[in-house]
Design goal:
This protein is of the alpha/beta class. It folds into two domains: 6-114, no CATH class; 121-325. It contains 13 helices and six strands. It has helices at 6-12, 19-30, 33-40, 56-69, 73-82, 84-90, 102-114, 117-131, 230-233, 236-239, 259-275, 277-288, 299-320; strands at 139-148, 165-169, 172-184, 190-197, 216-219, 242-245. Strands 1, 2, 3, 4, 5 and 6 form a six-stranded mixed beta sheet that branches. α4 (56-69) packs across α7 and α5 crosses α6. The protein starts with 5 loop residues before the first helix and ends in a 7-residue tail after the last helix.
């Protein structure tokens, strides 16, 4: 905003900032807005007839608020009117303009999804992290998590989402999709993201998460036997990777007491200590951004949201590590 208002002066005298204020300030500083806007420009509305379109950066900021705080179209519009932190992030001056309405946001989101802009953002940030030395090479940690989907049939179609399926984990059934990610073993940044229905086994997507120069692969017991799959066996590079897969839980207890059992336990602990990096990425998406349940129908729309959220998670991790000053 060009000129401070009385509200700005009042809020500047607060004793402390909220976590929301701190988070939005970090993301505002670290996101390369000009670059992201440039990615959208070729697909944005150039129609000079009718109501002029809202600015791309304004719509992008509104969409990111919706993604980060897991809000509906109407809820994010109301929240911007209600929250000073949101209005500041949006850079809106109510004396000259109003918040874009929910319908405008819905159309903007459709434009992003149709042109796969979320993946473009994700890949662009990863290139930047690599160029500045924040992302290492040579090792990947993979894992998958279930994201629940509404199982209710109380809708217009009287049916559940046909692209979602159910699966059993432990003694509990889950209906929804799976997010599969590959994380840099050295730094914990997410470098690959895919999505499938929940009934697809983790191991079937693993080959898509391996980088061309990876030499080490970490995974939990769901990936046992991965080196015998056709995607790995008939690929000379992937076949030569060192697969450090955790054994099934408590498998070392089958060994007799003594050195062999202690060594097996220590080896599993070391593999788990590296593999734990992937859990932090899921924590950011599910706890920080609240994306525990799908908000759209179909895999493609939810994969777009995942690309945006994991991209944001990489930026947040970089900022918290102090790397935003050089990224």
């Amino acid at each position: 905003m060009k000129q401070q208002t009385f509200t700005d002066y009042e809020y500047s005298n607060r004793k402390r900032q909220t976590k929301r204020d701190e988070f939005l300030k970090i993301m505002n500083d670290i996101i390369p807005w000009d670059e992201w806007v440039a990615y959208i420009v070729p697909y944005y509305y150039a129609n000079k007839v009718g109501r002029p379109p809202r600015g791309i950066e304004t719509m992008l900021r509104m969409y990111l608020l919706q993604s980060w705080f897991n809000l509906s179209d109407e809820a994010v519009e109301d929240s911007i009117y209600d929250s000073y932190a949101f209005r500041t992030f949006m850079r809106l001056d109510f004396m000259s303009e109003q918040v874009p309405d929910a319908t405008t946001l819905c159309k903007f989101r459709k434009l992003l999804v149709d042109n796969n802009i979320g993946k473009v953002f994700f890949e662009a940030i990863n290139r930047c992290l690599e160029a500045h030395g924040h992302m290492m090479r040579g090792g990947t940690v993979v894992d998958a998590t279930i994201i629940e989907a509404p199982a209710s049939t109380k809708n217009a179609d009287k049916a559940r989402d046909p692209e979602m399926h159910q699966t059993k984990k432990g003694n509990q059934w889950h209906f929804g999709m799976k997010s599969h990610i590959g994380v840099d073993a050295g730094t914990g940044y997410i470098h690959s993201v895919t999505a499938t229905a929940a009934n697809i086994h983790d191991i079937t997507e693993a080959h898509k998460l391996i980088r061309d120069d990876d030499d080490v692969f970490y995974g939990d017991s769901a990936y046992i036997g991965i080196m015998f799959r056709d995607e790995i066996w008939f690929d000379s590079h992937k076949l030569g990777i060192d697969y450090r897969i955790n054994e099934r839980p408590n498998s070392y207890k089958k060994l007799p007491e003594g050195y062999a059992r202690d060594f097996a336990k220590s080896l599993e602990y070391r593999k788990s200590s590296v593999r734990a990096k992937v859990e932090y990425a899921f924590l950011l998406v599910k706890r920080q951004f609240g994306y525990k349940k799908t908000v759209y129908r179909g895999i493609a729309k939810n994969l777009h949201r995942l690309h945006v959220l994991f991209c944001s998670a990489n930026l947040l991790m970089c900022a918290r590590a102090g790397g935003w000053r050089t990224a």
